[in-house]
Amino acid sequence: MSRTITIEPVTRIEGHASRITLQLGEDTGLEDARFHLTQFRGFEKSVCEGRPYREMPALTARTCGICPVSHIIASNKACDHLLGAVDIPPTGEKLRRVINLAQIVQSHALSFFHLSSPDLLRVGWDSDPATRNIFGVMRQNPELARDGIRLRQIGQTIIAKTLGGKKIHPTWVVPGGVSEPLSVEKRESMLRLMPEGALLEIAKRTYAFYKTLVPKFKDEATHFGTQPTLFLSLVTRAQGHLEHYDGVLRVKDAQGRILEDQVPPEEYGRLIGEVAVEDFSYMKFPYYKPQGYPQGIYRVGPLARLNNVQACGTPYADVALAEFHMLQDSGPIVSSFHYHYARLVEIIY
């Protein structure tokens, strides 16, 4: 007899999900799996349309309370273009990059240490659900937990006290650059927060520890989220290296072929389409237009970014990137399990 398994609520995720449903056939096993998101319908029309452009960064940042800096920067970059200030002052760009890197550190640290490590350390799979969390990690591996808390503290403090003014939805980034310069006092405060090499040493120590875990999860890495997809990311304009703030678009397929390269972001509409086809959601599903839906489904984020480049641009991250590419005999890394690996490489970067 066929049956449906419902997982509700969904915990320890960076985002909002109401439930997961698994449809099992009588003789066929798993037939369908659905991830049900908490959705807000009509955000563009009911909230954004008709608003002054200067309000848009703050509004779009409400998309997320974990990574609002990315949304703020993306919206402000769009406002830069509206104002004709495509090239903002160099100091403003550098400060935007600093706050964006701080967010990457804190967000990746949250995802790896707080949300994922309870499973990776076997705290959660065979344990009481009450210990299936960061507190269980603290008891089993207190040094790892301290490192995770420290990394996130560094990122959040740079955002809140040094640059952005507050941890969640900072308003410091504005069209044309930033709202105020970095003072000497705040610069010194930021340097005191992370003595020379401290953040890098934590990141390298965590990365080395995680590499010892990877062989233990060979089965999970082989079977978890290994469907072939495209990969979309930014790369630097000149060398095609890892990029988070600026750059151009690159699309690569699951065999490693570059389908699109050096595409200006403002031309994204030529590459990306949206379709509302799934009966369980009124969200639109993006896809790569030349291949249609669902063949043109693509992945983004740290896994896609590392799959799309051969260099990060910093010494230790380049070594880690080379080791990342060796996880598979050839071609891009297709297992979603290795998003963990990719996040740690980006923290090192």
Automatic annotation (TrEMBL):
InterPro entries, A to Z: Ni-dep_hyd_lsu, NiFe-Hase_large
Named cofactor requirement(s): Fe cation; Ni(2+)
Binding positions for Mg(2+) per the UniProt entry: 44
Transmembrane segments: none
Gene Ontology molecular function terms on file: nickel cation binding; oxidoreductase activity
UniProt keyword list: Iron, Magnesium, Metal-binding, Nickel, Oxidoreductase
Binding locations of Fe cation: 67
Binding-site residues for Ni(2+), renumbered to this chain: 64, 67
Highest taxon in the source lineage: Bacteria
Family to which this protein belongs: Belongs to the [NiFe]/[NiFeSe] hydrogenase large subunit family.
Protein name: HoxH
Organism: Allochromatium vinosum
Gene name in the database record: hoxH
